[in-house]
Design goal:
By secondary structure, the protein is of the alpha/beta class.
Length: 394
Amino acid sequence: MGSYGTLARRALLTDTPVMVQIQELIRGLKDCVSLAQGVVYWQPPKKALEKVQQIVWDPSVSRYGADEGLPELREALMKKLLNENKLCNSSVMVTAGANQAFVNIVLTLCDTGDSVIMFAPYYFNSYMSFQMTGVTNILVGPGDPKTLYPDADWLERTLLQTKPTPKLVSVVNPGNPSGTYIPEPLLQKISDVCRNAGCWLVVDNTYEYFMYDGRKHVCVEGDHVVNIFSFSKAYGMMGWRVGYIAYPTHVQGFAAQLLKVQDNIPICASIICQRLALHSLEMGPEWVSDQVKNLVKNRELLLDALSPLGEDAIKGGEGAIYLWAKLPDVFTEDFEVVRWLARKHGVVLIPGSSCGSPGYLRISFGGLVEDQCRVASKRLRRGLEELVSDGMIP
């Protein structure tokens, strides 16, 4: 067969999605429990689903809506941003999930060849979004070895020394893949450093409701700050694909350029999905909190399962749905460890190398009910005990 031309370099140079590799691994196994994908075990609120069931025949559901989102959903989100997130000077665009929100922002703010900054361990889809849009100069900053907090002093030095100044800094709070929550003073310092350098700060708040041990989530705002939010995890709407961007209202031209990108990707987020988001939002944050508190036991079970690696090896779990664990130094190929745990012990994790940190593992405690998590925990502990004592015995 003849060749019809070459494929785009930006696609060829983009990492293969780790979740696609994990799904292929799982498909080849008969009995496997997943602690890999960042999902929750619950469905959207029953009342919200029932309301959506009733409107499926409404002609408006099958038509295009406003690019920036249903007016009534945007109005509800503006109230939520003000009351819950204390964002007073932000406008809203509804997107087909938080990942699409991030792509919208990158296409709106970044040019091919721009420099951007992330911190390891980073969220792999954000990294890929930069790669596939031609932003190949991705500077990866260090986190504190003990806390995994982004190093704000390194950031300040790098922004001053790098010419031209990096266009954008990206953080996830609480973290994916680390489950680490950036405290308000540090997040504010990062924001101030970015503002002083003339650099955008993009904060992904997907896990805003997933906070433990009395911690409270806080956002930052400014004419240089863009916040991303999601319905996927909080309301169990992973497959419905609804997220939103809170962008600075007073930055001239921002909304118009963002609309160009939106119109050429989804035009608008699915109308029926937006309706479900609106009705879910009406349930209030208390509905989400009731679901999230049930994850504390899962976290305990998996902390115990990870204990063979040693106490100092385990980080995160302050927020989000993740724990972050360091493998013994001899195991440099973390994906090989992931494959071995899946095939030998029937439990699946994410390799840290996909997040810019080889030799680590991401463990998700959101996707299983407690009984299932107990099974996964036993398998994981047994596998790690064998790994530490005997290595990867086939």
